[in-house]
Every structure is written in C-alpha cells, then in structure tokens.
Write a structure and sequence with these properties.
The structure holds 2 protein chains of 2 kinds. Chain A is built from 8 helices and 18 strands. By secondary structure, chain A is of the alpha/beta class. Chain A folds into 2 domains: 172 residues, HUPs (Rossmann fold, 3-Layer(aba) Sandwich); 119 residues, Rossmann fold. In chain A, 61% of the residues are buried. In chain B, α2 crosses α5 and α3 packs across α4. Chain B contains 6 helices and 13 strands. Chain B has one domain: 3-Layer(aba) Sandwich (Rossmann fold), CATH 3.40.50.620. Chain B starts with a strand and ends in a 5-residue tail after the last helix. The longest helix of chain B has 16 residues. The chains are: A alpha/beta, B alpha/beta. Chains A and B meet through α2, α3, β7, β9 and β10 of A and α3, α4, β7, β8 and β9 of B. The complex binds flavin-adenine dinucleotide and adenosine monophosphate (AMP). The site of adenosine monophosphate (AMP) has 25 residues of chain B, from α1, β4, α3, β6 and α4.
C-alpha cells in the first residue's frame, strides 16, 4: 500500500486548473495502489484551500505549506518543501502538472528524492505493483510506455490530458512545513498583454504562416481568433521572420497544443509544425495550394486565397456564435 | 570563463519514426542525427560568453554511443575548445541516470557556467539540466530566453503561461537554453577543419543502475484522412455549418 502526493500550483493565490487534473490522476493511482491522496498547496498565504474543494476531485487531505517567498514560484523553496513532505509521508508517487513551473520543479524533486521521473505523461497507472506511464516522444510521432522500477516515482502530467471526474473525499486541510530557500529568486513576473490567451492553454487556436505575406496581415488572424474566443498561434517561419513572438510558435521547437479546434491559415504543414498540433480534436486548414501537406491532417479544408476566405469566415463565425 | 555545454545526439526533426524490431526503440536505419536544436543555443551562448570574458574554455560534453563523437565535432566546429564523450551503448530513458553521469563529470571541473538545452527533441524530458544542477548543488534557471551576466551575478528571463519570469541567481550556475536566447552560428569551413584537430576525451559513462524501463514504443493513432470541402470563399458557410453540427466545436 502506498499513498500519492499531488502537488498543486497557484498563481496570485488562485489554484490553477491543472491542480484538479493532478489530484484526480493521483486519486486513480492511489485507488489502484490501495492508498490515500494528499494534495499539497504551496502559497504565501490566503489560498482558500478548503474553498478549492480538492476533496471533490479525490484529495483525502490537503496539506498547506505557507511562506512569504511562495507568492511567486520559488524553484528551490518549492522543491525543498515537496521533498520534505514526500520523505515524511510513505508515498509511492509524487504527481506534478507539466506546466512551465512544473517542468522546472519535477526534475528537481526527482533529484532530491533520488526517484526516477516520468515526464509530460498522458496516462499513468499501476502494472505489477509499479508505476507505469504513457508519454508522447519524438514530438508526438511515437508513443512510449514506461515502467518505473523504484519504490517512489515522480510523474509530471501533460496539461489537458486528464479530465477530472468526481470522487467525494474529505479534503481535510492541515499545515505542512514550508522550506524557504533562495538560490534563485523570481524577482518579477512581466505579464503579457492583458487578456491574451496562451496557445498551450486555449481551447481554440488560430495560427498563421508565411502565407499571410507580412506581419500587418495578422490582424486577420487576430480577428478570427477573437470571433472564436481563441488564441493566436504561428508557424516557425513567421516567428523566425520576426512577425510574431516565439511564445506563439506551434510545433516541435515551439508549443504542443491540443485544443478543441485548430485553424491553420497559410501554413504548409511541415512535419515539425504537425508535431505540435496533430492532437487537436478538429483541424481546419486554409491554403491556396491543394497539395499542401496540412490538408492530409485537416478534418476540413478550404483551398483558396486566405485574403478572400478569412474576412468571410470571421463574419460567418461571428454570426453563428451570436445566433 | 570556464563553461561546460551538455549536448545530446538526437534524430533530425525531419525524421519519420519507424519502430525497431524489438518494439521498444526507434529504428535508426537511415536516420540522420543532429545536435539537439536547443543544445545549439547553449553552445552559441557558451561561445559568446567565453569571447566576451576575453578567454577561457568551452567544453562540449555528450553522453551516448561512439557516433556521438560527430555531435561533439559539430560543437567543436562552431568554436568549442574540446570535447568529452561519456560512452554508453544506449542513452537510457532514465533522465536521472543521465544526470548522475553528467554530474560526475562536471563536479570537479571548476566551471563558472554549465549550459544545457531546455529539452532534448527526442525524449522531451525537460529534465537533465535541472536534475544535474540539483545533484551539483548549484543554482539553476530553466528555459532561459534572455540572459545578462555581470560580476558573478545573473538575471535571466523565462517564459511562463501568459508572461515572463525575471529570475536572479549567482555564478556558478546551471542554465537551460530556450529559443530566442541567441542565433546559433553555422560552422565555417575554417571551423570544421580546426575541429578535426581538437581533442575529444572518451571515457565510460558512470551510469549506475537505470530504473526506467521502456516497455513499448508505438505509433500514434492516425488521424482520419483529411477532407477538402471545396475552393474559395463560397465554401465558408458550409464549413461553418459543419463546425457547428458535425464537429460541434462552435
Ligand atoms: C529543427 C527544426 C525545427 C522546426 N520547428 C518548427 C516548429 O516548431 N514549428 C513550425 O511551424 N515549424 C518548424 N520548423 C520549420 C518547418 O520546417 C517549416 O519551415 C515551417 O513550418 C514553414 O512555415 P509556413 O508553413 O508558415 O511557411 P511555408 O512552408 O512557406 O508555407 C506557406 C504556405 O502558405 C500558403 N499560401 C501562400 N499564400 C497564400 C494565400 N494567399 N492564401 C492561402 N495560402 C497561401 C502556401 O501555399 C504555403 O503552403 C522547424 C524546422 C527545423 C529544421
Ligand atoms: N545523453 C546526453 N548527453 C549530453 N547531454 C544531454 C544528454 N541528454 C540530455 N542532455 C542535455 O539535457 C538537455 C535536456 O534533455 P532532456 O531532459 O532529455 O529533455 C538537453 O538539451 C541536453 O543539453
């Protein structure tokens, strides 16, 4: 019997959506191991841990570690705190979301606990008493199955890959020991433009490529993204040309996205681009070249000039969503 | 300034993956290998920092099979001074085992800076850099896209969802490189020639036990074949109708 520690994440005192995914996945794993789930919240103070209702998604206990330095992400402080809690608790697995912070934190925890890491997994379970995981490799061109041959595994979970259900557990809140440390200090967080959605988190992404001909024409992409309530993405060609920021790049050396709807406009569909978006639920492509590889993965394609098609599409979408 | 750069031999990003007969690895027949694209940012940064400091040494370290000497040669051609190959027949799926072997090599190296790529484009762990830093007890910032170093102190920027974190640290430190940090140079012919004469030390990797076993490798489920609805703006209403009634995403 082993328990599972679910590491949650807060930003500005509010728990992030991935926290529920992590607690839910921990619940499934704990049930398979016959153990319990502890959810760990690290914050400066003021996170309403009880209000976060982590019991609803399967936490038996909610451990709260508070320190003033936890207002922002604290790599060493968080890692030390998780390692301390994990060492005390008889856990078989520590789960973290593979967000920007989680990707930084999970390897640190693994090293401190001398526990192997399975990172960015899309599935996790128990096989023959050991933690087993499924994860995309080679930019999603292949799927790997892993088994961790150790009594404790650290696992980071790909955001959006786990859908929380309900599991009414107590979620009783208690205190845990915070370890403050500051070998590196996050001095400030520069917020991106207000209200801008991140491509990796958005449920709709509209991406533009070299077919747009120039940065000034991205207003067309922004218009469609707005009509759909989505985020703007870009191909590497336009990021390299300096038309769009790297934060928007989708693909093997950019972000991997799994939105409900992905619209590729003036993008040829190079293998490195496909690697980042092929797991989208629905793909729409607009390209003037009927042989562009993007059409091979598009559920719906329109062949033609984007400068004629986009204004019409934005208008029709706006109408459809209003009506 | 003494700088170590850890680089990994990875399949070219153009590679179409085929599964090997053992069912757990990629079939490497006919596959071209390259220096990890993020590792190139790390190498470039190391070269620029060395030159800005007016001297020092850049050491390129790779853990992998004999063929990883080619990977090291690429870094030497860009301008690194010497190479170390930590030899292992296979690069294990256990990132912590790799980090332990790299840490053993780096520990007494007297480096001011140890650079990694943000991630390897084959296994996507995002892990070996920060793990190595923890094992060495050094400060570490991951996915750095902007860096300032001044008098033994550094400020780095890293992207997070919806913004940038500005992070402060002191040297010696471990950093992992993100795109945007710099523009890696192409090795000039002169560099390629010079690289042939630069030393590469080869020794066995201190891997220890590896505790992550790959039990299967498979191809992802194919998407169903694409459908072209038609040509031109006239097709837009049909597309919107399908998005609404068939795909149900509006
Ligand atoms: C190591 C490495 C990593 C890479 N990583 C990435 C990555 O992460 N993401 C990524 O995207 N790429 C990546 N690439 C680059 C990739 O190989 C392609 O070069 C890139 O994706 C092409 O961008 P594009 O589709 O915008 O441009 P192009 O390939 O030039 O395509 C432009 C498309 O626009 C269409 N078009 C032109 N005019 C119009 C019009 N008026 N109306 C409609 N359509 C029009 C054309 O038919 C064409 O298909 C990587 C490459 C390498 C080597
Ligand atoms: N076998 C290796 N040899 C040298 N460096 C490596 C090796 N594996 C990973 N790295 C380094 O660690 C970074 C992150 O790799 P990963 O954690 O596997 O995604 C890479 O970009 C390299 O800089």
């Amino acid at each position: 019997m082993a328990n599972v520690l679910a590491v949650t994440e807060q930003r500005d005192g509010a728990l992030r959506k991935t926290s529920r995914e992590v607690v839910w996945a921990a619940r499934q794993l704990a049930d398979a191991m016959g153990g319990t789930v502890d959810a760990l919240v690290m914050a400066a103070s003021g996170v309403d841990a009880a209000g976060a209702k982590l019991g609803e998604v399967g936490a038996d206990r909610v451990l709260v570690a508070e320190d003033a330095s936890f207002a922002k992400y604290s790599p060493d402080g968080y890692a030390g705190t998780v390692a301390g809690v994990a060492k005390a608790g008889g856990y078989g697995a520590v789960l973290v979301a593979a967000t920007a912070a989680g990707k930084d934190l999970a390897p640190r925890i693994a090293a401190r606990l001398d526990a192997p890491l399975a990172s960015d997994v899309t599935g996790v379970g128990i096989e023959g008493g050991k933690v087993a995981a499924t994860r995309p490799v080679y930019a999603g061109k292949a799927i790997q199955q892993l088994r961790v041959d150790a009594p404790l595994a650290v696992v980071s979970l790909r955001p959006n890959a786990f859908t929380p259900g309900s599991a009414a557990k107590a979620g009783a809140v208690s205190k845990a020991t915070a370890v403050a440390a500051s070998r590196v200090t996050v001095r400030e967080v520069k917020a991106a433009e207000q209200g801008r959605l991140d491509v990796a988190e958005a449920s709709v992404v509209v991406s533009g490529g070299r077919g747009l001909k120039g940065p000034e024409h991205f207003a067309l992409i922004e218009g469609l993204a707005k009509a759909l309530g989505g985020a703007v993405g870009a191909s590497r060609a336009v990021v390299d040309a300096g038309w769009r920021p790297h934060a928007e790049q989708v693909g093997q050396t950019g972000k991997t996205v799994s939105p409900q709807l992905y619209v590729a406009v003036g993008i040829s569909g190079a293998i490195q681009h496909l690697a980042g978006m092929r797991t989208a639920k629905v793909i729409v492509a607009i390209n003037k070249d009927k042989d562009a590889p993007i059409f091979q993965v598009a559920d719906y394609g329109i062949v033609g000039d984007l400068f004629e098609i986009l204004p019409r599409l934005t208008e029709e979408i706006a109408k459809a969503r209003a009506g | 300034m003494r700088i170590a750069v850890c680089i990994k031999r990875v399949p070219d990003t153009e590679t179409r993956v085929r599964i090997a007969a053992d069912g757990v690895a990629m079939d490497e027949n006919g596959v071209k290998f390259i220096v990890g694209p993020y590792d190139e940012y790390a190498v470039e940064e190391a070269l620029q920092r060395r030159d800005k400091a007016g001297g020092g040494e850049v050491v390129a370290i790779a853990l992998g099979p004999d063929a990883a000497q080619e990977t090291i040669r690429s870094a030497l051609a860009m301008g690194a001074d010497r190479g170390v190959l930590l030899k292992a027949d296979r690069i294990p799926a256990d990132a912590l085992a790799v980090a332990k072997a790299l840490a053993a090599e780096l520990r007494d190296g007297g480096y001011d800076l140890v650079l990694f790529g943000k991630m390897a484009v084959d296994d996507y762990h995002h892990a070996v850099g920060p793990m190595t830093a923890e094992l060495l007890g050094l400060p570490c910032v991951t996915a750095v896209s902007k860096l300032e170093l001044e008098g033994g102190k550094g400020t780095a920027e890293r992207e997070i969802e919806g913004g940038m974190e500005v992070v402060e640290f002191a040297l010696p430190a471990v950093l992992t490189a993100e795109k945007g940090l710099n523009t890696p140079r192409y090795p000039a012919l002169k560099g390629i020639m010079a690289a042939k004469k630069k030393p590469i030390e080869v020794k066995p990797a201190a891997l220890g036990e590896t505790r992550v076993a790959v039990t299967a490798l498979g191809l992802p489920a194919e998407r169903k074949a694409g459908r072209i609805l038609g040509e031109g703006a006239e097709v837009v209403p049909e597309l919107v109708r399908l998005l609404r009634t068939e795909a149900k995403v509006l």
